[in-house]
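Running co-folding for NAP.
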Amino acid sequence: MTVKVAVLGLGSVGKGVLEMIARKDLDIIVTGVADSKSGLIDPSGLDIDAVLTAKKTGRCGDTSISANEVVSRADYDVLVEVTPTDAGSGEPAHSYMKMAIERGKHIVTSNKGPISLHLKELKDLANEKGVLVRYEATVGGAIPIMHTLGNGLAGNKFVALYGVLNGTCNYILTRMAAEGLTYDQALAEARELGYAEADPTYDVKGIDAAIKLVILANTIWNNGASLDRVDITGIDRLTNDALRLAEEKDCTIRLIAEAFPERGVLRVSPRIIRKDHPLVFEGTLNAITLETDMAGEITLIGKGAGSIETASAIIGDILFISSHVRCN
Ligand SMILES: NC(=O)c1ccc[n+]([C@@H]2O[C@H](COP(=O)([O-])OP(=O)(O)OC[C@H]3O[C@@H](n4cnc5c(N)ncnc54)[C@H](OP(=O)(O)O)[C@@H]3O)[C@@H](O)[C@H]2O)c1
């Protein structure tokens, strides 16, 4: 069955999603798009190549059509919300999502802000309206962690989780250990290669990893986790001496996010770990280890960001909805 989607945000992720829909035979049509300044609506399906070509010049469409209008007026089954993250308020994405759910539309998002702040509210509203909120792309990029939690490992008790949830920090730590670069040199290199933002504060201070930890904790344990309850230490004060000391014990240092619900632990911090541990790997990958009662310990590893990699998670969620729920 063909599923109709409206896409809000045509940056790296939004364009990746459109490209994959255009290039693959997925039975998905795009009936609305919007960026920060313009929008397009076509109930019979937009010409995706034309949208992507128009976006190269700045705007994707008509300045008289806002993102709000696309959400409230377009004919779609699934709202794909891929606008920038505001970790403080979750806006405007939070309002877009609520408006779409009120209209009986499903939500697929990569936006960590509203999901870390308002997951329960959004899920409750979605339950009431008989629709789904899916957010695979908010944690671990292409890694199918949410599908694994909700499907593959359904029925398991999750005792603990720990993971490397920020590729920028992993890259910096890898380079400091391998080449003896200082933190500042490794950060400069990460910036040059496009692995770090111009303002890397959220990444290097551990906040990005903590937001993802909150999303995972609330998904698994529904325990009202919030950012202010995470004990956070970043990597920005890490010295080469600390890495050298770890090296002497055949260990290294990684920024680890961890949750032990029975002990009330939610923590992000640089940890000394043995080099043969599954969470020690090089570069910008992400990984998550789950401790379960039936399946034992399971580690998922993969690309934590990127246009097409994140689109993979978004497309997976759209197709999950179209195969599990009736779309009109
Ligand atoms: N990039 C990744 O690898 C990745 C991975 C996982 C999750 N994420 C998350 O996915 C989301 C999108 O990331 P991105 O890298 O694609 O961001 P991006 O490149 O900055 O693109 C954001 C897009 O959203 C549009 N936008 C901004 N404000 C808007 C508004 N109020 N209404 C409608 N559209 C608006 C922008 O419009 P203009 O084009 O007009 O500026 C732009 O097209 C973020 O929440 C990010 O944290 C990204």
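Result summary
DSSP finds twelve helices and twelve strands in the chain.
The first helix runs from residue 12 to 23.
Job closed.
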